Amino acid sequence: MPAVPATRAPHYRVVGVLGRGATAVVELAVAPDGTRVARKRVALTGSAVDIDQARTRLRREAVVLARLRHPGIVPVLAVDDDAGDLVIVMPALVGNLADRVAAGGPLPPAEVAEGAVTLLGALATAHAAGVVHRDVKPANVLVDHRGRLALADFGLAGGPATTAGLTMAGTVLGTPAWMAPEQARGEPVGPAADVFALGATLLFAATGATPWGDGPPAAALARAASGAPCRLPATTPSSLAGLLAAMLRPDPRQRPGAAALLAAAPVAAAGGSPATAPTAPAGAPA
Q1: What burial class does residue 234 get, using C-beta atoms within 10 Å of its C-beta: 0-12 exposed, 13-18 middle, 19+ buried?
Q2: Are the C-beta atoms of 167 and 107 separated by less than 8 Å?
Q3: What is the pLDDT of residues 167-216, one digit of tens each?
Q4: Over the range 145-175, which residues count as b (16 or more CB within 10 Å of their CB) and which as e?
Q5: Contact, 244 vs 232, CB < 8 A?
Q6: CA 18 to CA 91: how far, in whole Å?
C-alpha cells in the first residue's frame, strides 16, 4: 500500500481560515511553489493512548483515501504532524455546495444530474475499496472554479480497516439533516447510508429542501430515526424524481447501490426521460 507523503507543517504558509467544525479547522495555505492548498487541522484529545490510536487510524485512513482515484473525490496530498494536531493537506477548491445553494438558490436540473453522475461515481469507487463516508452532505461537496463537484471530508469514514474501540457502539455519527434512518438509529451503517445521504444532498441541490424538513438537529434526528418515507417536494424536477426516490428509500435493503444508480443517472444528465430506478440493493454487487 503506498504511503501518503509526510511533510513538515512550516512548509505551508497559512493565509486564512476556510471553515471550523467541532474537532477541526480548515486553513487556507500556500505551498512553497505558490500552490494554494486546504489544510484540515484535526485536534486530537484524550489520553495519550487515545491520541496515539486516533493518529494511527487517521493516518491509515489517509493512506486508503490517497488510493481512491476519481475526479469526484478530493485527493489527499499529504499528512502533517503540527503541534500535536494532525493536518490533512488537500487541494483548495473555491467553495461548497451548501454555500452555493444558499447564495444562488437551487441548481438547474441538468447541473444536478451531472453532479449526480460525478458523485455516484465517487461513492462507487470508495465503496468498492471498502470505504464508507458516513457524512455525505452539501458542506462536504466541494466546488471548483469550473463548477465541478467533488466529495471531501472522509473524517468519519469507516471500513474494514477502521480501528475498533474509537467510537462507542450505538453512537450516532454524521449530520441529522442528511442522515439515513438506520444511521439515525445508531445502527451499523454501510454503503446504503451513503447512498441515502447523497440522495438528500442532491435533493437539496435541486430544490433547496432537506428530506427531514427544517428545525433543530434533534428534531431532524427523530424524524430520520422514525423511518418514515421521504416525500419529494412538488418542485423536484421530473427528470430527477425517479433517481432521488430510489436513493431515499427508508429501508437500506431496498436502496440501489451507487454503481447501479450510476447506470441510471446519465439519463437525467442528458435531459431525457425520468431515470428508471434500478433494483439492486446498495450492499449487493452492481
Answers
A1: exposed
A2: no
A3: 333 444 678 889 999 999 999 889 999 999 999 999 999 999 999 988 88
A4: eeeebbbbbbbbbbbeebeeeeeeeeebebb
A5: yes
A6: 12
The Cβ of residue 34 has, within 10 Å, a number of other Cβ atoms equal to: 6
Q: Which three cell numbers stand for residue 92?
A: 483548495
3-class secondary structure, 141? strand
Q: How far apart are CA 40 and CA 80, in angstroms?
A: 10
Report pLDDT digits (tens) over 8-63. 444 788 898 887 776 778 889 998 888 899 888 887 778 888 888 888 877 777 77
Q: Using CA atoms, how far apart are residues 210 and 232, in angstroms rounded to an integer?
A: 9
Listed in order, strand segments (DSSP E) in the chain are 6-8, 13-20, 24-30, 36-42, 78-82, 85-91, 95-96, 141-143, 149-151
214 in catalytic set: no
DSSP at 158: B
Q: Where does 32-161 show beta strands of DSSP type E?
A: 36-42, 78-82, 85-91, 95-96, 141-143, 149-151
- Which of the following is catalytic: 80, 135, 153, 194? 135
What predicted TM-score, i.e. pTM, was given to this entire model? 0.81
Contact 182, 174 (CB under 8 A): no
Which residues touch 202 (CB under 8 Å, ≥6 apart)?
A: 112, 115, 116, 119, 240, 243, 244, 247
Longest dimension (CA), the chain: 57
Tell me if residue 185 falls in helix, strand or coil: coil
